Sequence to fold (85 residues):
Amino acid sequence: MQSSGLRADLCCVDTTQLNGRFSGRAFDVELLRDLPPGIDPCGENGEFHTCVSAGPMFAGPIDVTRGDTLLRDGRFAYTDFMLHL
Fold:
């Protein structure tokens, strides 16, 4: 897979559909290989959401640091990403 300069990380995972340990992982080839059968690789069924921090649509990359991952509402694993200005 050729890189487009896009950088995204999973910031929220619905643990009823996907293991919460996926939250915080980079959206990359390894993640796609590790997704279990039945999980949409784009998260189109609400399995996960991403935080995009770089790509051709930005003037430059956004400097973020991965924070803690917490289970909220008994269902969603959220990973915090802190913005550095």
Remarks:
- The mean pLDDT is 95.
- The helical segments are 29-34.
- The CA atoms of residues 24 and 74 lie 18 Å apart.
